[in-house]
Design a protein that fits this description.
With 372 residues, the protein is of the alpha/beta class. It starts with a helix and ends in a 5-residue tail after the last strand.
Length: 372
């Protein structure tokens, strides 16, 4: 099966994906684990398309990396409930065997559970109607079958539930290029949206096609505009085409900001210290191109336009302005320092308290109007 061939050898892209998921899992578990007392005292990691547990070249896949981190963390080992599934019976059995052979697996209070179920609308309905403990869900199908907006919306509906999923852009783009309807695509981004894309994509450039498809999925995951959605892009080995995206969906800015920092660090390139939120194997061959982009200059222009004549605390500024933009807190602090040196802003502590240096969350920033 194609899904089995995927695990022949771990690619650079697979390694980056696994690193992002494992790092976020530990950050999320640390934050949520300290607050679950009185809420059942458990947190969950659930993977619907878990695979066999390791690549044939010996590298561990994401489920094993997550379990290894839990085994090595005494607090986490007492509260983690881990559930894995793969619709391929051979993958499920291989994963079960790999888990059983993990050193220290018996130290986990709750033994990992492995299922062999088809992921479809029935699974989505079950999670829609079930109250879920705080959980991080990871969905990484071989393609897009089984991945639906209903399923993602169902698993993140409850408190402290978040979702990371691997989006096979290459296959979705190909499917939308055909005139025939694909019910799996309809389930992912909605029938009306899919139909509009099937017509509209024909006249778009490859870059704009990608933007249109990603934006359609982002809207399907955030229908009310109250969620936080992050996207990390993976390029092919030659760096000429997009192959996949890693999507993250949260209901809280803290989760969004935590993942944003992790994705930024895993980006293959920086422009003026601003991450591209992309892994492109070709970046190391084209470093000179990054000198042409000036995203920090763009941020300065945006801040001067959006906040002219206004005073706002740094923490409030960062949370309200950074969403949907590639900037993390260090980028804002860097450009604000430059703007202060230029006389474009003033920055003081509330109540006239002495400001030592830098931009703590309570530092009040006043943006001068143009011409002053």
């Amino acid at each position: 099966m194609a899904g089995n061939r995927f695990f022949e050898k771990r690619t650079e892209q697979s390694a980056i994906k696994a690193t992002i998921v494992a790092k976020y899992f530990m950050a999320w578990a640390s934050i949520i684990g300290s607050t679950v007392q009185g809420r059942g005292g458990k947190i969950a990691y659930i993977d619907f398309f878990a695979g066999p547990g390791s690549y044939k070249d010996g590298f561990a896949s994401t489920p094993i990396l997550v379990l290894q981190k839990a085994i090595n963390d005494p607090k986490l080992s007492r509260i983690l409930v881990s559930i894995f599934n793969d619709c391929d019976a051979r993958c499920a059995q291989s994963l079960q065997t790999t888990i059983q052979q993990l050193p220290g697996i018996d130290t986990l209070k709750y033994a990992p559970r492995v299922f062999n179920l088809k992921v479809d609308e029935v699974i989505a309905k079950i999670f829609t109607e079930t109250h879920i403990m705080p959980g991080l869900f990871f969905l990484d199908p071989w393609g897009y079958k089984g991945l639906s907006a209903d399923l993602i919306n169902a698993v993140i509906k409850d408190w402290a539930c978040e979702c990371i999923f691997f989006f096979n852009y290459n296959r979705v783009n190909l499917a939308l290029s055909k005139h025939s309807r694909d019910k799996n695509i309809d389930a992912l981004i909605g029938k009306e949206t899919a139909n509009a894309l099937r017509v509209g994509l024909k006249s778009l450039s490859p870059q704009n096609r990608e933007l249109a498809i990603v934006e359609a999925l982002r809207k399907a995951l955030d229908p009310t505009g109250k969620r936080y959605v992050l996207v990390f892009r993976f390029k092919t080995a030659r760096g000429t085409r997009t192959s996949h995206h890693l999507f993250f969906v949260s209901k809280h800015f803290l989760g969004y900001d935590t993942m944003k920092h992790i994705m930024a660090k895993q980006s293959s390139a920086m422009q003026q210290g601003v991450a591209t939120f992309e892994y492109n194997p070709a970046d190391r061959r084209h470093r000179f191109l990054f000198d042409l982009a000036k995203p920090l200059d763009d941020l300065e222009d945006m801040l001067l336009r959006d906040y002219a004549g206004k005073t706002i605390a740094f923490g409030q500024l960062y949370e309200s302005h950074s969403v949907g933009k590639p900037y993390i807190d260090s980028n804002y602090k860097q450009i604000l320092k430059t703007m202060e040196e230029k006389g474009l802003i003033t920055a003081v502590k509330p109540g006239g308290r002495k400001r030592i240096r830098g931009f703590a969350n309570d530092v009040l920033i006043t943006f001068l109007r143009k011409g002053k």
